[in-house]
Fold:
Amino acid sequence: MHIQTSSTRLNETQERVASGKRVQRSSDDPFAANRSIQARSDRNVIEQRVRTINLAQSELAVTESAVTSLSNVLTRAQALSVQADSAGLDASARNQIAAEVDELINEALQVGNSSHGGRRIFGGHQADTAPFVPDVPGMPTTVTYQGDAGLVLREIGDSEQIAVNLDGDALFDGAFTSLIAFRDGLRANDRTAINAAATAIGAEIEVTLQARGDIGARVRRLDIVSERLQGDDERLRGLVAELEEVDLTSEVVELQMRDMAFQAALSATGRSLNMSLLDYLR
Amino acid sequence: MAISVGLNSVTRALLAQQQAMDAVAHNVSNVNTPGYSRQVVRLAAVGPGDTGVGNGVQIEGIERIRDMFVDFQMRAEAHAAGEYGARASSLQMAELALGEPGDTGLMAAMDGFFNAWRDLANSPGESASRSAVVQAGETLAFSARRLARTFTDIRTDADTRIASAVNEVNAIGREVAALNQRIIIVRATGDPAADLTDQRDLALDRLSQLSDIRVMQHDDGHVDVFVGGRALVQGNRVNEMVPVRNPANSDYIDLTWASDGAPVKIASGEIGGLLQQRDVDLPARFADLDTLITQIMTDVNTVHATGFALDGVTTGLSFFTGTGIADIAVDGALAADLRLLAAGGAAAAPGDGSGATAIARLQEAANLTAGNETYGAFYSGVTTRLGVAVRDAKRLAESQALTISHLEQLRQSVAGVNLDEEMVNMVQFQRGYQAASQVIQKINEMLDELFRMV
Structure:
């Protein structure tokens, strides 16, 4: 019976050394297993959160780049407005500038209607339809917004969300209005109108700057969350290892001890089986 | 007359030593026979007749060396050993089925499922994300159903083992009854029926592992065996246990007495342990898992019904079909048309994934109505309780086996044949025989002297 017990205990230690695991089943250490099960699950969720954060960061980068493009358009328009305000220009010169402003309006439309990952980035929740529609393509008098104010939210933690988009209407409406007014003023050769439009364009550039600042803050928040999650994941990985894995050094020592015990049990049994009075009787 | 008295004495001696040698031979032959108790010859001097000198030796009887108290203790511990052993093996099977901690069990399936909804929330229009959700749902459903089947299989396995154990109980009952009969007859002739009693004790040992029994010894040598207050064996009659299928309990067997169909009350032993596992313990643990899966199904379906499909219009659909862990499945309509998956949180908003987010958040909320826990915490609790039960059952089984082993050693030290001791006895009786035959020789020489004188 003792041989069997020694043998069983030896096998258990061998299994632990070979597999490297101290807890293979819950019964090996139920409370360690409990914590390990929960830790593993937490890591699974963190893995997905990290994916989400990476996605959000790229989406914010795309949004920022678009806002920058809009800002560039408006800055160019502002430069033109300074040019157009000089007293020495005549109607035909102003008409030429108007043609360039039309191009700028078209560029702004392109930016406003751009897509990323199959989603119109300035459409809010209307992801499939182009949010900005000019009434006359090429030379619009108004641009209508067809998107909505929906926030595209990314869940980066338990009930912790971040928006990766901006309100397209709020961002672009003023820009289009001021650009169109500028072009109309140029065509009408109206210096007052041109000046008024120039001021409006200046204000719109401010709006884009603020938008970029907003996005910058979001990106920084994501960085913080990302770092926190990496730290959590590392900690949990260590916890699972500590709970489940075997301390190889002490386990190998245990293995040798049990092996010795097993050998001793075998030897003792062998000896006792050998002794018999029959050996001593003639 | 005196000389012949002397001759009588030594003749008796020769016979006695011979018989004693026979006893040694019997013991030695049975050194490895399980359940054998060594037999010892009781020699006694024969009292004096008219001459005042004793009349030699006689064999008063052959004694069966057995410690009745150890036997009694052994049977008291055996049923516990049987019960713990049955409990440990059945619970271990259940633990293997759960397979936690690990990557292939129900926990991983739940994580994968809710993560798929999180990914869908990030790209609600993408068919790859939708497909992944349906896949993850099917994986979860499959894991759940497989768990349900395995638990049922373990219960059925216990049922089969109960049936075969009952067959064995009945067979042992018949054997004990037959032995009772023979023992009574043999003892009536003065023979202590040692070997038959050994056989009967061996049978009773095995029986006490299968069930808790009470053994009542009678003066004429027979025993009655009681199980749960009813007689299994009375003298040479057996009241067998009859298994009857119970449709109210998944067609598993109930045990009844053949004589009147009354239920058999077995509290312990292998059969008791298996019955407890099959009818109480395993169903309770399974019920916990069913509660979990049913809660997930209900919650997911409720939230899903408030969400909107990709067309921005369709709503009110369920995600899972089925009633519980045994038949949970993903609604075929969704698998067939992925656009119906309600990822949207509002009408006419194809870029909105908040419906999917709402489903994913179910994993984080304390939704279990009893105990206010998350799905994961509840499941982890179930697993831990099972792990503790397995560990305790194994420890109990091990310690009980140790106890039994010690009792067996104790029994062997009393009743077992020690070859060295028998060798000493053999030499003893051989010398006794030699001495007796020497005496006969001397008496013969004395008679020769006497006859020479005549």
Q: What stands out?
A: Chain A has a mean pLDDT of 92. The CA atoms of residues 84 and 93 of chain A lie 8 Å apart. Chain A touches chain B through 46 residues (CB under 8 Å).
